[in-house]
Write a structure and sequence with these properties.
heterodimer, A: mainly beta, five-stranded mixed sheet, four-stranded antiparallel sheet, 9 strands, 0% helix, globular, B: mainly beta, seven-stranded mixed sheet, 49% strand
C-alpha cells in the first residue's frame, strides 16, 4: 500500500471548517483513500473514503486531486468533539492486502472554543 | 447491533503470565483483525482472519496466537507476557477485505505487563 504524509498537528476554531491535508504521491490506480479518526484512545472511527471522485457524507467531505497524489478531508463546521487524531490511509482494493489498514501517526486536530 | 465488543477493558499482568483477550462481533462480518497501539503511535496489525477456521499473521505476530472457531469470535492469546506487550489492543471487523469496505473497531483493551 502507498505511504501517506500528514502534518503532525493542526488547530481549528470551533464552527469553522477544518481542512486536513494528506499526501499520497505513490498511490496506484486501484488504491482507495480512507480517513479514520481516533478520539482520546477510543477505537478508530471510519469517516469517509474515495477512489477518484470527491465524496461527501454526513460527517465530512473528501476532495481528491485529479492526479490522485493528494487529498483533503474537510469537516465543514468543526466542534470541540471533533478534537482527535485523524488518519489518512491508502488501501488496496483487493488482491493480497486482505483489507489491512496501515496506520501512520496521523494529524492531531485540536478544535478551540 | 452491539457492533464489536472487547473484554476486558483493562488488565495488569505479571511477566510470564498468560491471558486471552476476547473479541466478538454481531454484524456477521467475515474478516476480523487484531491491532495493537503503543503510546503516541499508529495501530499495527497483529493477526487477521478471513473467515471461520482461517487465520494469518500480520506485521507483529510474535508472542501472540489466535483462533477463529466461529464467525462471531476472534480471541487473541498471550502465552508468556512480556513488558514489550504493554499496549492498547483493538479488535476490528469488516464484511470483506475487498474494495471499499470499512472496518469497525471495538473500544480496546488496555494491557499493562509488569
Amino acid at each position: 500500500d502507498a505511504k501517506t504524509t500528514q502534518p503532525t498537528s493542526m488547530d481549528c476554531a470551533e464552527g469553522r471548517a477544518a481542512n486536513l491535508p494528506c499526501n499520497h504521491s505513490t498511490i496506484s490506480g486501484n488504491e482507495y483513500v480512507y480517513w479514520y479518526r481516533q478520539i482520546h484512545s477510543q477505537g478508530p472511527q471510519y469517516i469517509i473514503h474515495g477512489l477518484k471522485n470527491n465524496e461527501t457524507n454526513e460527517m465530512a467531505s473528501l476532495i481528491i486531486t485529479e492526479d490522485r497524489k493528494s487529498s483533503t478531508l474537510i469537516l465543514p463546521h468543526a466542534t470541540l468533539r471533533d478534537t482527535a487524531v485523524y488518519y489518512c490511509i491508502v488501501r488496496s482494493a483487493g488482491g493480497t492486502s486482505y483489507g489491512k489498514l496501515t496506520f501512520g501517526q496521523g494529524t492531531i486536530l485540536t478544535v478551540h472554543p | 447491533n452491539a457492533g464489536v465488543t472487547q473484554t476486558p477493558k483493562f488488565r495488569i499482568l505479571k511477566i510470564g503470565q498468560s491471558m486471552t483477550l476476547q473479541c466478538t462481533q454481531d454484524m456477521n462480518h467475515n474478516y476480523m483483525y487484531w491491532y495493537r497501539q503503543d503510546p503516541g503511535m499508529g495501530l499495527k496489525l497483529i493477526y487477521y482472519s478471513v473467515g471461520a477456521g482461517i487465520t494469518d499473521k500480520g506485521e507483529v505476530p510474535n508472542g501472540y496466537n489466535v483462533s477463529r472457531s466461529t464467525t462471531e469470535d476472534f480471541p487473541l492469546r498471550l502465552e508468556l507476557a512480556a513488558p514489550s506487550q504493554t499496549s492498547v489492543y483493538f479488535c476490528a471487523s469488516s464484511y470483506s477485505g475487498q474494495g471499499a469496505d470499512e472496518q469497525y473497531f471495538g473500544p480496546g483493551t488496555r494491557l499493562t505487563v509488569t
